């Protein structure tokens, strides 16, 4: 139908997926640009979602598949936007596609290439807790369900040796001759949905992250507890591989902070800690689970009821107090700390088997580069600026470019989905104006 | 186009069953391989497959390949609730060349693995559920879906920020809008507000700008001092009646958006409100700030969570009150820098970016934050100078007494009375927190389950202006999807007449709540498929069994009941037999409540087996009787709450039939207490689980039915095919 009825969506997480489907369902042509080999984003890495305790991939996978099969959606994975020209109604978007080194029309997703690949690197989908091969699928429900070869670690692509995968691939799908491609897409509008990254709390020495074996981040815990995680859903202490008998969550690590970290509140950590606490209790019914919080931000629909359930039915302990310093016990790598219980006023000491840090959630680290290419402004934390946050919360500083999801500001999945749909309304308005000339 | 296979011989179609593990969600409780082994032996089943995630690309590919390879003529997926994934599987089945009405889903997750802890019993129950589907599958027929035209117009109810935003966006997208507002002016709650968090923009400026655009739009027809009186019809063709100043107006629209907002609770009985002028609400403070009639006294105390975050009653947090209180605290300090403001709070909900920034500014400017716990709320005592507020501060280990000139109570937003009335008119649900209940709390925040109706703003739940605007845009986008397409395929689950059997009595036409049955030229009733909503009430009223509901015909439901129950007991003969309870659950409320009970992992006895019907009004005495004959010891007919039946009054009709059936069962040795009618809304999973537990107990006390006591019942001769 031409550029007037085309939209480029940047980011293939739940925000990008929802925006793409809403546009495609109304007849608009969508080009969904995702930099990794699969869509799904962070939501695909979660075990369950609060407050419904829906299995994350169960509610996400059908939408991912719909994107893949939708006649109006062109899915461009391993792709990034590198240049933008034009204006609202008439953008020319250059998209660079990295080679997958696997022929998408031939790969049957059998996995032989991965099983034969000799290279092992940390698996980013498992938060680095286990390894993957250079020839890999990002996760079992990846869309497209097509393997890719990581060019930074592949022995052939870096050193000119190996090619074992090619020998064993029965479909003849390995193609080391693939080259990067570039395309220019005509689009009426652009929707940014680049999602979130997590703050690495290593600089906060007092919490012992990466120094003490049994200190993990919330997303790492999520992977440890998921059935498709590095330990197949068995929650095991990194130090000795045993079930933890006590687990403590520390909220606001690197958040609400005027010194190290970020001053803002990431909005969802109180809830995902509650969710994970319930999961720990379900997995290990004898475990003592504690959430050390500052304010329990259960402000959304069904959130307070969820926290009450965690407390009353699952026996999760909520302590209003933030530990100052964590120490590791040499004997068994347990973590101990002093804290002030600000409800009772007492100074108490606690020792736990496993410590979970609920860290700040940040906008995508690639936003700076993308913002420059798009010609839009970011705030000091790399969120996309909305010139009229109140009445045009999905607009950016450039007309025709819209933002939704975490890249707009900290929020949960339902709000992300609402914003993604909302951004499609904004795009539809641009399209209509462009078509009327 | 998609598959339209006639589906093979009705007598012995080839059935394929796909069992889902759902990761460990099902497989962790139900022994899926054991169920697979059992399923292979059911007559008619020619293929059984297992998948870790049937909804994944691989799972769907597996289904399509199996259909082709094994020439399957009926497909069953035993997995999660059909309310989420049925469309995906139906599409996959169609792509493989099979009519989508030859597909069935069975819920072994929300209704089995998620609500029962006894793995062996849950596995046995899963076998019965699968068998139910196989038994029904043999009798399924391919059905044609009709296309309906969608009118490119929307009725938006409520002209506050949300309603106006949605209307303007729809107009910009090229659709016509009728915007109905009960007040004489637009603006909603914002008309009373001073500034909006974080305190820069004035509410009046916002609603003036929106109001001007609304009045200037030639696509938006604004009706003030007007209310919606009646809504009939369906997606694409809603018949709406509006009563206004000039009289009543009738119109047809394609979609409807609910944007009726919410109102702050008036805290009668809390903290001396109403007993002294010194205690006011945050809304009253806003009004005074707006009219510049506030002189901030030396000390002001704001109390948060008044009538919210309770253990029982209003359990929810109203999201915006902390932000509003902080904003107003800063405003008071702006007016009088010498004022000391105390914010007495439980959890400070200044979330996100702006929330924290404003909170930090408040700290800098001397606002004092005093935490209190739920079990030790502050005490307010009126004095001559205002009121004293005493709060127990754990950090000090003692009571802090603040002598205040003004005490401001932050109360939650609650549903409006008009909102509840609209819910009844539209037949959409309200959750236990009082707000409208969306189709799915995670994945479909602005859709109602009913096609073509959407919601946004504080009618959905407390939120601030920019969040309301985002949701309003979302609702506009979602409504625009069917309207952009212009035509949509409707479900084929509609009433259908077997003309040979019809005797022209007219019982169906008088029973239809939607007047969808008309008289044709031949003197026989004709079903208007566009108006028919598929409740099945007519099918039960028909004395001849001539009127049937596709996909839920008697000769499909009766075998399903049989499959769900037979053989009666597979337990060790030595053990005392456990009673079996069948629950006919309506897809709108009770089935959803059962789903949410699963989502919440509530427990109820494994003795309960649920069978889906479109409306409780579809349940006939012969279905109930079949259940008792085949092995049920108790039967529940579950429908929506009395005023909330999706099909107007199907549940009331069901209740009448259940009462009559109980009398009949009493005269037989079965006993009327073995049958019960249960009303619940989708937002009542706990009540659902509790009722099932109590009912099972009742049946257990009555004992297992001796099958010989259940006489063979022949109803109307020729109805059983």
Give a verbal description of the structure.
The complex is a heterodimer of chains A (437) and B (721). Chain A is an alpha/beta fold and 437 residues long. In chain A, 24% of the residues lie in helices and 25% in strands. Chain A has 3 domains: 6-98 and 180-195 and 364-436, FAD/NAD(P)-binding domain (3-Layer(bba) Sandwich); 112-168, no CATH class; 199-361, 3-Layer(bba) Sandwich (FAD/NAD(P)-binding domain). The longest helix of chain A is centred in the last third of the chain and has 24 residues, at 413-436. Chain A is globular and about 70 Å long. In chain A, helix 1 packs across helix 2, helix 1 (14-25) packs across helix 10 and helix 6 runs parallel beside helix 7 (269-283). In chain A, helix 7 links the parallel strand 16 (246-253) and strand 17. The two termini of chain A are 15 Å apart. With 721 residues, chain B is α/β, with parallel strands linked by helices. Chain B has 5 domains: 1-143, Rossmann fold, CATH 3.40.50; 149-263 and 414-488, FAD/NAD(P)-binding domain (3-Layer(bba) Sandwich); 267-411, FAD/NAD(P)-binding domain (3-Layer(bba) Sandwich), CATH 3.50.50.60; 491-550, Alpha-Beta Plaits (2-Layer Sandwich); 552-721, Rossmann fold (3-Layer(aba) Sandwich), CATH 3.40.50. Chain B contains 19 helices and 32 strands. Chain B has a 5-stranded parallel β-sheet with strand order 8-7-6-12-23. In chain B, strand 26 and strand 27 (525-527) form a beta hairpin. In chain B, helix 1 runs parallel beside helix 5, helix 9 (321-335) runs parallel beside helix 10 and helix 16 (590-599) packs across helix 19 (685-702). The longest helix of chain B has 21 residues, at 465-485. The model of chain B is unreliable at 1-10, 570-574 and 715-721 (pLDDT under 50). The interface between A and B is large, with 81 and 80 residues.
């Amino acid at each position: 139908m031409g550029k007037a009825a085309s939209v480029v969506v940047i980011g293939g997480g739940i925000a990008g997926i929802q925006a793409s489907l809403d546009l495609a369902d109304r007849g608009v042509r969508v080009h969904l640009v995702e930099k990794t080999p699969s869509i799904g984003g962070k939501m695909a890495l979660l075990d369950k979602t609060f407050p419904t305790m829906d299995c994350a991939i169960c509610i996400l996978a059908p939408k991912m598949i719909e994107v893949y099969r939708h006649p109006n959606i062109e899915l461009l994975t391993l792709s990034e936007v590198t240049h933008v020209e034009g204006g609202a109604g008439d953008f020319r978007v250059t998209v660079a596609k990295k080679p997958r080194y696997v022929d998408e029309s031939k790969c049957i997703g059998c996995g032989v290439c991965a099983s034969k690949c000799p290279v092992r690197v940390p698996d980013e989908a498992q938060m680095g807790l286990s390894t993957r091969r250079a020839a890999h699928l990002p996760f079992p429900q990846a869309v497209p369900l097509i393997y890719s070869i990581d060019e930074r670690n592949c022995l052939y692509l870096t050193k000119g040796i190996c090619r074992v995968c090619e020998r064993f691939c029965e479909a003849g799908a390995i193609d080391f001759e693939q080259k990067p491609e570039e395309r220019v897409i005509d689009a009426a509008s652009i929707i940014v949905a680049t999602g979130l990254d997590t703050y690495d709390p290593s600089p906060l020495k007092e919490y012992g992250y990466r120094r003490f074996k049994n200190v993990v981040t919330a997303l790492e815990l999520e992977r440890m507890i998921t059935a498709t995680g590095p330990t197949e859903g068995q929650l095991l202490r990194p130090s000795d591989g045993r079930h933890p008998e006590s687990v403590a969550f520390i909220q606001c690590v690197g958040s609400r902070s005027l010194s190290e970290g970020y001053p803002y509140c990431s909005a969802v950590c109180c809830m995902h800690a509650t969710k994970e606490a319930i999961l720990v209790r379900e997995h290990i019914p004898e475990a003592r689970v504690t959430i050390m919080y500052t304010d329990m931000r259960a402000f959304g629909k069904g959130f307070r009821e969820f926290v009450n359930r965690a407390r009353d039915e699952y026996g999760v302990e909520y302590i209003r107090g933030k530990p100052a310093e964590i120490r590791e016990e040499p004997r068994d790598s347990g973590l101990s700390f002093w804290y002030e219980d600000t409800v009772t006023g007492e100074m108490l000491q606690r020792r736990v088997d496993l410590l979970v840090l609920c860290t700040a959630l940040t906008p995508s680290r690639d936003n700076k580069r993308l913002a420059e290419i798009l010609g839009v402004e970011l705030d000091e934390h790399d969120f996309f600026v909305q010139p009229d946050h109140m009445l045009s919360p999905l607009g950016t500083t450039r007309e025709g470019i819209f933002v939704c999801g975490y890249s707009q500001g900290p929020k949960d999945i339902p709000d992300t989905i609402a914003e993604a749909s909302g951004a499609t309304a904004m795009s539809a308005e641009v399209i209509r104006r462009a078509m009327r000339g | 186009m998609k598959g339209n296979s006639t589906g093979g011989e009705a007598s012995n179609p080839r059935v394929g069953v796909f069992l889902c593990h759902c990761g460990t969600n099902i497989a962790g409780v139900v022994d899926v391989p054991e169920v697979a082994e059992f399923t292979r032996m059911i007559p008619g089943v020619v293929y059984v497959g297992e998948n870790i995630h049937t909804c994944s690309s691989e799972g769907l590919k597996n289904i399509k390949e199996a259909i082709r390879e094994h020439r399957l003529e009926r497909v069953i997926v035993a997995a999660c609730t059909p309310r989420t994934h049925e469309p995906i599987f139906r599409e996959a089945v169609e792509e493989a060349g099979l009519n989508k009405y030859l597909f069935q889903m069975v819920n072994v997750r929300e209704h089995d693995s998620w609500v029962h802890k006894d793995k062996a019993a849950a596995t046995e129950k899963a076998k019965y559920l699968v068998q139910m589907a196989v038994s029904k599958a043999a009798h399924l027929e391919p059905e044609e879906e009709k296309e309906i035209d969608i009118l490119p117009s929307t009725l938006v109810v409520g002209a506050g920020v949300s309603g106006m935003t949605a209307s303007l966006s729809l107009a910009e997208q090229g659709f016509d809008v009728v915007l109905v507002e009960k007040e004489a002016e637009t603006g909603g709650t914002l008309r009373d507000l001073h500034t909006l968090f974080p305190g820069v923009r004035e509410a009046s400026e916002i609603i003036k700008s929106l109001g001007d655009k609304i009045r200037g739009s030639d696509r938006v027809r604004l009706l003030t001092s007007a209310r919606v009186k009646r809504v009939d019809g369906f997606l694409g063709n809603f018949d709406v009646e509006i009563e206004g100043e000039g009289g009543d107006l009738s119109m047809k629209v394609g979609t409807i958006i609910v944007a009726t907002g919410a109102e702050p609770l008036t805290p009668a009985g809390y903290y001396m409100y109403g007993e002294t002028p010194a205690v006011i609400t945050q809304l009253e403070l806003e009004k005074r700030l707006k009219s510049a009639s506030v002189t901030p006294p030396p000390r002001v105390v704001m109390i948060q969570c008044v009538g919210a975050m309770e253990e029982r009653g209003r359990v929810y947090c109203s999201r915006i009150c902390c932000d509003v209180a902080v904003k107003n605290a800063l405003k008071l300090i702006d007016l009088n820098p010498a004022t000391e403001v105390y914010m007495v709070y439980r959890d400070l909900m200044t979330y996100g970016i702006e929330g924290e920034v404003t909170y930090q500014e408040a700290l800098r400017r001397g606002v004092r934050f005093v935490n209190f716990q739920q079990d030790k709320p502050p005490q307010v005592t009126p004095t001559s100078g205002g009121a004293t507020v005493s709060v127990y501060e754990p950090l000090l280990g003692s009571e802090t007494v603040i002598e205040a000139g003004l005490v401001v109570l932050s109360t939650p937003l609650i549903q409006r009375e008009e909102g509840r009335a609209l819910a009844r008119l539209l037949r959409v649900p309200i959750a236990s927190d009082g707000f409208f209940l969306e189709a799915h709390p995670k994945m479909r925040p602005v859709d109602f389950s009913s096609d073509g109706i959407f919601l946004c703003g504080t009618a959905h739940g407390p939120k601030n202006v920019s969040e309301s605007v985002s949701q309003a845009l979302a609702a506009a986008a979602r409504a625009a999807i069917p309207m952009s397409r212009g035509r949509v395929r409707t479900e084929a689950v509609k009433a259908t007449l077997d003309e040979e059997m019809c005797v022209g009595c007219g019982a169906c036409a008088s029973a239809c709540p939607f007047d969808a049955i008309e008289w044709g030229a031949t003197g026989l009733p004709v079903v208007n498929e566009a108006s028919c909503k598929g409740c099945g009430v007519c099918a039960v009223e028909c004395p001849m069994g001539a009127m049937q509901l596709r996909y839920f015909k008697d000769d499909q439901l009766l075998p399903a009941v049989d499959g769900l129950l037979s053989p009666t007991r597979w337990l060790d003969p030595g053990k005392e037999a456990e009673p079996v309870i069948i629950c006919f659950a309506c897809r709108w409320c009770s089935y959803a409540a059962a789903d949410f009970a699963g989502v919440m992992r509530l427990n109820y006895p494994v003795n309960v087996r649920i069978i889906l019907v479109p409306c409780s009004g579809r349940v006939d005495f012969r279905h109930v009787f079949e259940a008792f004959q085949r092995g049920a010891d108790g039967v529940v007919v579950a429908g929506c709450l009395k005023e909330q039946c999706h099909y107007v009054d199907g549940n009331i009709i069901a209740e009448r039939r259940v009462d009559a059936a109980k009398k009949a069962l009493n005269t037989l040795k079965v006993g009327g207490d073995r049958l019960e009618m249960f009303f619940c809304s989708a937002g009542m999973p706990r009540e659902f689980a509790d009722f099932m537990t109590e009912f099972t107990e009742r049946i257990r006390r009555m004992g297992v039915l001796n099958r010989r006591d259940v006489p063979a019942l022949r109803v109307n001769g020729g109805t059983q095919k």
